[in-house]
Amino acid sequence: MSVSASAFAADVPATDKGAAAGKGIGASKLVVDGSIFCPTYIADGTVYTRSVTNMPLAPNSAEIAKYMPTLPAKHNSKNISTFLNVSAGVPIYIVNSKDPKTPRVTVTCPAFRKPSPSLRNVLFSNDIPLPAYAQPSPSSDGHLFLYDIGTDIIREYFLMKKEKDGSWCASWGGYYEHMSTLAKDNYACQLTEGSAFVVAMIGGPGLIGIEEARHGEIRHAVGFLVANARKGVVSWPAKGSDGVDTDPNAPSQGQWFRLPPSLNLDGLKLRPATKLIAKAVQKYGGFARDRTLGCHMFCGESGFVEKQRTGVDPWTKGGDLYATYKIAKNNYDVSDFPWHLTEWAPVDWGKPQ
């Protein structure tokens, strides 16, 4: 099921709108340093926006739901079992390489990596468009996502860091071409090559966007980092897994889940951030895209990029989202997410035959 962005577009400030050089509907409606979530959701019409109302259930769905709340305690002794990581969220930079003013940087990878010629050409070269103020996520994964509306290519990097000489190094990454025709050409939202999250899917659209949080509605499935995942099992649309849990009721990476369509979320009295996520999961579902060997973790779009334009990171003290979602210790505690009520699809649900 596809989602209309009309309600979002009406509320976008005039200063955030503007002409963008690019081709295709998805690219042409985005602006440099704009948003892939609003006014146009870049993955509309893909697996990220399919309805889960009639999703079939795995035979062990109830057992997975019982197992999920117990997973974090196996890997840490903290009281927070699930949180929304925004202080170390993933930055998404939207650039236009056709603009001669766009800076170019050199990005390399470690010597032990052996990228293919195409991966080296797209990800690891001396001609990568990147703003001078760019920085990766301060989390241990060091993610940095880059959408070039000039070439219609999205690049997603893992363990990205800036060197003293101004060049960059990334441990690994992946890319996809033709983002503006994503729904037609790549319903599964799989990267052309490489990976930033272990599932090797385009990860940016699965984040919780800043503008979505402002409007109180996430318009797509939510990817999250699971405390651990089933060993040796990959569920479409994932292409990879690093789970090490041998319990048959551990979720597989890429395996879709939902909250029951009939569940009254208002009656659960969830925290504001938890309810925001739960509403999306009830309508579009969610899936594990990586593991933490710690807590379950949802990820928000980093506020660093917006701070360059406005001077304020909306997720931190003084920002509007900080006030709306009651931040605690720079992370949103969403341990009240009702994992015990989740329902899980069979492995490979929806995979084309």
Descriptors:
alpha/beta; 15 strands; six-stranded mixed beta sheet; single chain; seven-stranded mixed beta sheet
SSE inventory with pairings:
Elements: H1 6-9, H2 24-28, H3 61-67, E1 82-90, E2 92-95, E3 104-105, E4 107-108, H4 117-123, E5 128-129, E6 144-148, E7 153-162, E8 168-176, H5 182-185, E9 193-194, H6 210-215, E10 222-226, E11 256-258, H7 272-284, E12 286-291, E13 296-301, H8 304-310, H9 320-325, E14 332-333, E15 343-344
Parallel strand pairs: 1-13, 2-6, 4-8, 10-12
Antiparallel strand pairs: 1-14, 3-5, 6-7, 7-8, 8-9, 10-13, 11-12, 11-15
Describe the overall structure.
The protein is of the alpha/beta class. Helices cover 17% and strands 20% of the residues. The protein has 9 helices and 15 strands. The protein has helices at 6-9, 24-28, 61-67, 117-123, 182-185, 210-215, 272-284, 304-310, 320-325; strands spanning 82-90, 92-95, 104-105, 107-108, 128-129, 144-148, 153-162, 168-176, 193-194, 222-226, 256-258, 286-291, 296-301, 332-333, 343-344. The strands form 3 sheets. The protein has a 7-stranded mixed β-sheet. Strands 2, 4, 6, 7, 8 and 9 form a 6-stranded mixed β-sheet that branches. The two termini are 20 Å apart. 48% of the residues are buried. Residues 1-26 have low confidence and may be disordered.
